Sequence to fold (324 residues):
Amino acid sequence: MYFDGYDGYGYRGASFEQRYQCFSASFIDKPHIETGDRIIMPPSALDRLASLQIDYPMLFELRNDDAERVSHCGVLEFVAEEGRIYMPYWMMENMLLQEGDLLHVKNVTLPKGTYVKLQPHTKDFLDISNPKAILETTLRNFSCLTTGGSIMVAYNNKKYYIDIVETKPSNAISIIETDCEVDFAPPLDYKEPEKPTAPIRGREQVAEAPAEEAEPKFSAFTGTGRRLDGKSSSHQSQPISSARSSEEKLSGATSRHGPPQQSAGSSSVNGTRQAQGKLVFGQNANQNPKGTSKEATKETEQEQPEKEVPKFQPFSGKRYSLRG
Fold:
């Protein structure tokens, strides 16, 4: 039965239920209670609990009726002033309590836990060298866990908050002297790495493929020719493919019949090339420039074959002495 009065701090019924003003650990010289979930209650509560047939260890349900928040805790000492309880500040934050707010406290019996699933608030908790050992050491200061609540783990001058996602066999369990399986959910700020997406060959890419194949291929030396004397030339050079085919024919003829003989047709071609303003290395290189230009002009106009020109003979020029 619930009793709402403070006069004489009396209790009614066969169970323990009472309202207390709650304060954080900063109002009492016991800062170590911040590392667990145990509260400090007045001596009158111990007297009432001792007269009842309750199960040990003593566990309590904490309820904030204004915010509709519920949690569970244990008791550390019975040395608080009458009408007051002292609790960890992180528990007050979870239950949306301010200093001096009224809190409903009720004695309960919880089953021993067999499974709990935890979810850190940040990824920093996973960066600890051995988070499992740190968590195991911290939970020794806790007496129970509630689904939907949170706990605080203090390590290396830093506070890590962890949500209680799931508990078994009930929504509130006792973790005192019990073997409990612990599982972790991804942290709240965890983001999965983006997987590289393979390019999909769609209709647009398929349509672009024929357009690329239809583009003309590059042909070297297909520009217009320029004369060395500055005169205009209407001749355009042939693609490199035709030049290669002619060279292959000439090389084939040379391999079968030996060195090529200078004919009237070849001399006419040479004359034509010289008339077009191109440099010719070989047999026609030693001809008189004036005669060559005249012959080339005549051959271009009349297209008559040239006479055979003697072969090139090396070291046939004049000799000069370095002595002077």
Summary: Confidence is low (pLDDT under 50) at residues 1-12, 239-243, 253-257, 260-285. The longest helix spans residues 240-257.
